[in-house]
C-alpha cells in the first residue's frame, strides 16, 4: 500500500475516532474517571496531551496545565517592525496527520506558500544551487550525484510507509509503555536498528556515495538538527523527510496550534514553575491505598500545591531544562535523565546579506537563493542562512531580494560574534538572538530512552524525542500517553504493548 493511500485512510479515521469519547467509555465495568489531571509544560506535547486526555476521560475531569514561560514552548515567534517571524519549529511534513487534524479541528489555516530556492555552501563557494525549473534541478543532481537523490527519496518513503503504521495503532486505541516498543511496532527490528547506527553508516550500507552524503545529506541534517550525519539513522531519516516537497506551516505562527489545543481542551492554564512532585497515599473506603500526586509550584502569588490523580510531564527532565524534584517514591525517581540537549542559536537579522561572502562572482541583485545550507565545516560556524518570511503572508507580498533589506535567520551552534555578523551582513538594522536547547544531541548507538511510565499514574512524554524530535513526534507521544493513561486507569491491558497488528489493521482499513 502506498504512503498516500495509507495517509488518506488514516486521516479519515483521525476524523472519525477523535470526535468525542469512544463508545467504550460508557461501558458499565469502567472505574470512576479521575477527578484531576496535571500536565507540566504547555508546548505542543503538553497542549496536545490536554486535548487527547479530554477526549479519553470526558468533560468531568479537571485538567490543569502548568507553564512557567509562554504557551508554545519551542514554537515561538519574534516581532520585527510590526511583523511576526518564526524563531522555533517552523515546518510541518504533509504526512503529519495529527498536526493536520489540529489545524482543521481548530479552524486554523495553512500559511500561503512563498517559492524558495536552496543552495549548498562549503565555506568557499556554492557547490549546488537549485533552479526554478524541476528538469534543470534533476539534471544537475543526475550529473553530479547520479541517481542518489532519487534513491534517497525512495529510501525515506519506505521508512515513512512503515512509520505511518502508528496512526493505525492509535486509531484502534492501542498504546505503548516505552519508546522502544512504539518504534518496534512501527518498523520491527529494522527501525530499532536505525537507532543503533549512524545515518552515514546506514546510507553507505544502502549504496549511497560518500560525496552525496557529504554534500547533500549533511547540510540537510545540519539545518534540521544542527548535527552531522553521525546522528543516529532514525533521527537522520526524519531530518531527510524534512527536505521533502509540500512542507507547510500554520498561518499566524505554529504556536497558534498550542493555544488552540489548550482552549479546545478546556484546561486551566496555571502560570507557575513546578518545583516538586511528591507521592501521597490515602486509604479508601474499600480498605485499599490510593495514590495521589502532590504538585508543588511557585507562581506570582508564591508557593502552592495541589493534588492530582494523574500527572503528565511534558517537559524534558534533563540538565538545563528542568529542576523538578521528586519525593516519596520508592525506588526514587531521578531529577535528570542521562544525555544532553543540543544547543542551536537562532539569530534573526534585519539587514542586507553580504552576497560576496557566498558568491564572489555574482552581483547582489542577481542572487536569488533564499536558503543556504552548509557542509560540515567547523570553520564556518553556522549551519544555515535563510531569508525569513512573516508568519502571515499578506496579499501581494513578495520576498525581498538579497541586495535589499530583509529578515534573515541564521542557525549556529554558538552565538554569533560581531565579526561573524559583519562577515555575513553588509548592514544590520535589528538583531535578535534566541538560544534553544532544541533537540537531543543524538548519537549511535542511542541509549535506551527513559520510560513513558515513571510511576503508576505519573507519565513522561518527552522520551519520544530521543527517537526523533519534531512537532508531530510530540503529538504522537501525547496521543500515546493519553491512551496509555486511559487504559491503565481502567485496566485495559489488552490495549497496551500489543504488536504485530499492523497487517490485520491494514486489512480492516
TrEMBL record:
Annotated signal peptide: 1-25
Domain Prenylcysteine lyase, residue spans: 128-498
KW ATP-binding (keyword) present: no
Domain of life: Eukaryota
Record's subcellular location: Lysosome
E.C. code: 1.8.3.5
Catalytic activity: an S-polyprenyl-L-cysteine + O2 + H2O = a polyprenal + L-cysteine + H2O2; [(2E,6E,10E)-geranylgeranyl]-L-cysteine + O2 + H2O = (2E,6E,10E)-geranylgeranial + L-cysteine + H2O2; S-(2E,6E)-farnesyl-L-cysteine + O2 + H2O = (2E,6E)-farnesal + L-cysteine + H2O2
Coiled coil: none
Function as written in the Swiss-Prot or TrEMBL entry: Prenylcysteine oxidase that cleaves the thioether bond of prenyl-L-cysteines, such as farnesylcysteine and geranylgeranylcysteine. Only active against free prenylcysteines and not prenylcysteine residues within prenylated proteins or peptides. Involved in the final step in the degradation of prenylated proteins, by degrading prenylcysteines after the protein has been degraded.
Membership in a protein family: Belongs to the prenylcysteine oxidase family.
The name this protein goes by in its record: Prenylcysteine oxidase 1
Natural source organism: Hemibagrus wyckioides
Amino acid at each position: 500500500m502506498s504512503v498516500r493511500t495509507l495517509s488518506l485512510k488514516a486521516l479519515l479515521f483521525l476524523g472519525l475516532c477523535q470526535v468525542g469519547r469512544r463508545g467504550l467509555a460508557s461501558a458499565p465495568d469502567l472505574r470512576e474517571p479521575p477527578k484531576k489531571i496535571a500536565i507540566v509544560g504547555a508546548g505542543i506535547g503538553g497542549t496536545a496531551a490536554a486535548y487527547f486526555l479530554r477526549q479519553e476521560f470526558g468533560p468531568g475531569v479537571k485538567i490543569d496545565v502548568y507553564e512557567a514561560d509562554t504557551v508554545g514552548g519551542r514554537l515561538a515567534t519574534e516581532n520585527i517592525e510590526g511583523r511576526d517571524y518564526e524563531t522555533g519549529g517552523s515546518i510541518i511534513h504533509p504526512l503529519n496527520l495529527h498536526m493536520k487534524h489540529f489545524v482543521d479541528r481548530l479552524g486554523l489555516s495553512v500559511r500561503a506558500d512563498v517559492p524558495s530556492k536552496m543552495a549548498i555552501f562549503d565555506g568557499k563557494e556554492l557547490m549546488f544551487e537549485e533552479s526554478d525549473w524541476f528538469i534543470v534541478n534533476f539534471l544537475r543532481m543526475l550529473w553530479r550525484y547520479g541517481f542518489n537523490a532519487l534513491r534517497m527519496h525512495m529510501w525515506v518513503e519506505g521508512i515513512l510507509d512503515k512509520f505511518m503504521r502508528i496512526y493505525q495503532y492509535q486509531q484502534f486505541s492501542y498504546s505503548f509503555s516505552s519508546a522502544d516498543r512504539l518504534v518496534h511496532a512501527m518498523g520491527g527490528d529494522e527501525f530499532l536498528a536505525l537507532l543503533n547506527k549512524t545515518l552515514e553508516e546506514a546510507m553507505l550500507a544502502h549504496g549511497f556515495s560518500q560525496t552525496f552524503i557529504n554534500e547533500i545529506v549533511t547540510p540537510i541534517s545540519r539545518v534540521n538538527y544542527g548535527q552531522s550525519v553521525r546522528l543516529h539513522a532514525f533521527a537522520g531519516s526524519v531530518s531527510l523527510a524534512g527536505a521533502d516537497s509540500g512542507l507547510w506551516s500554520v498561518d499566524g505562527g505554529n504556536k497558534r496550534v498550542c493555544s488552540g489545543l489548550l482552549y479546545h481542551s478546556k484546561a486551566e492554564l496555571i502560570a507557575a514553575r513546578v518545583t516538586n512532585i511528591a507521592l501521597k497515599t490515602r486509604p479508601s473506603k474499600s480498605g485499599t491505598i490510593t495514590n495521589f500526586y502532590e504538585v508543588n509550584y511557585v507562581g506570582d502569588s508564591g508557593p502552592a500545591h495541589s493534588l492530582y490523580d494523574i500527572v503528565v510531564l511534558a517537559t524534558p527532565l534533563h540538565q538545563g531544562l528542568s529542576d523538578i524534584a521528586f519525593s516519596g517514591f520508592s525506588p526514587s525517581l531521578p531529577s535528570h535523565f542521562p544525555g544532553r540537549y543540543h544547543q542551536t542559536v537562532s539569530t534573526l537579522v534585519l539587514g542586507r546579506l553580504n552576497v560576496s561572502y557566498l558568491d564572489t562572482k555574482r552581483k547582489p541583485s542577481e542572487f536569488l537563493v533564499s536558503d543556504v545550507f552548509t557542509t560540515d565545516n567547523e570553520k564556518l560556524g553556522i549551519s544555515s542562512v535563510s531569508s525569513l518570511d512573516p508568519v502571515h503572508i499578506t496579499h501581494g507580498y513578495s520576498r525581498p531580494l538579497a541586495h535589499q533589506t530583509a529578515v534573515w535567520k541564521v542557525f549556529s551552534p554558538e552565538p554569533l560574534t560581531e565579526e561573524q555578523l559583519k562577515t555575513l551582513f553588509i548592514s544590520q538594522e535589528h538583531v535578535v538572538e534566541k538560544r534553544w536547547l532544541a533537540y537531543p544531541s543524538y548519537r549511535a548507538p542511542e541509549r535506551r530512552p527513559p520510560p513513558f511510565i515513571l510511576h503508576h499514574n505519573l507519565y513522561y512524554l518527552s522520551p519520544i524525542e530521543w527517537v526523533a524530535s519534531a512537532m508531530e513526534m510530540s503529538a504522537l507521544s501525547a496521543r500515546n500517553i493519553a491512551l496509555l493513561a486511559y487504559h491503565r486507569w481502567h485496566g485495559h491491558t489488552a490495549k497496551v504493548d500489543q504488536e504485530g497488528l499492523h497487517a490485520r489493521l491494514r486489512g480492516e482499513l
